[in-house]
Amino acid sequence: MFYHVKDLQYNAKPSEPDPVYAKKLQEILGGQFGEISVMMQYLFQGWNCRADNKYRDMILDIGTEEIAHVEMIATMIAQLVDKAPAHDQEEAAQHPAVEAVLGGMNPQHAIVNGLGAQPNDSSGYPWTARYTISSGNLLADFRANLNAESQGRLQVCRLYEMTTDPGVRDMLSFLIARDTMHQNQWMAAIEELEETQGAIVPSTFNQEYEKQEVSYSFMNFSEGEDSRTGRWANGATYDGQASFEYVQNPQPMGQKPDLPPAPNYIHGTAPEAMRKQQGLGKMEPASSQDQIH
């Protein structure tokens, strides 16, 4: 069960309107790594959780917090477009500053949303559930969550640098701090799961069924050997099962592909041998009388 508290989790009040910045702020609301994405990702992971209740409880705690972040950013966007100039073209032409503002703002904030936020990114593309991951494997999901929080914090930090509004920066500083916590949270949960589940996902698959001679080989498929010095090419593997092997010149291990012709009803391009067998021969160019001028 959910219920709504009228107070925001943290202040979301700009010092002055800025409809151009409101358009930028849409990215951390409805973009791939925005608050709607992590909100839906965490909630569905929690609702679908079949593991220990402590994980379900933790996931739903953070998922519910992300609802609050969606509300904060939506509220901020609504205030940034509040009192946005709506002068006609003639007046805008007389005021270059107004024209510049109108030229950079998202017109849908006024036309479609009535001076409100929308579940879209900064380019106007609608949010999609395809941004979310809920696989049922907590280690795989928590690694995806860590990536989402890393990308999200990166974008909020960039937006912080794009404004000098103290009210906007105050809200963003709160979101940046929460993303710091959330990254640490997922790293702690990942470490805990790796101790019991192992480092490789899924841990339940019998490794005897994989091609083990290439399980720990780093293959150099580019010019140069700079990659040889990385941790991924030297020393013990992170699952503790072997040592990394560096393969300088990986050789093909498969067959040369030779696909048979498609059946006639596909109407593909027949090989030359088949064309001769069917008496098709080569196509003759159209005569000058048949050509269309």
Can you tell me about this structure?
This protein is 46% helix and 2% strand. It has helices at residues 19-25, 27-30, 35-47, 53-80, 89-94, 96-104, 107-111, 138-161, 166-197, 272-277; strands at 217-219, 245-247. It has a two-stranded parallel sheet. The chain is extended, with a radius of gyration of 28 Å.
CATH fold name of the domain at 19-197: Ferritin
Radius of gyration: 28 Å
Q: Distance between termini?
A: 73 Å
Which strand order does the major sheet show? 1-2
Offer a quick outline of the entry.
This protein has helices at 19-25, 27-30, 35-47, 53-80, 89-94, 96-104, 107-111, 138-161, 166-197, 272-277, and strands at residues 217-219, 245-247. It has 293 residues and is mainly α. A two-stranded parallel ribbon has the order 1-2.
List keywords for this structure.
mainly alpha, Ferritin, 2 strands, 293 residues, 46% helix, two-stranded parallel sheet, extended
Topology:
Blueprint: H1 19-25, H2 27-30, H3 35-47, H4 53-80, H5 89-94, H6 96-104, H7 107-111, H8 138-161, H9 166-197, E1 217-219, E2 245-247, H10 272-277
Parallel strand pairs: 1-2
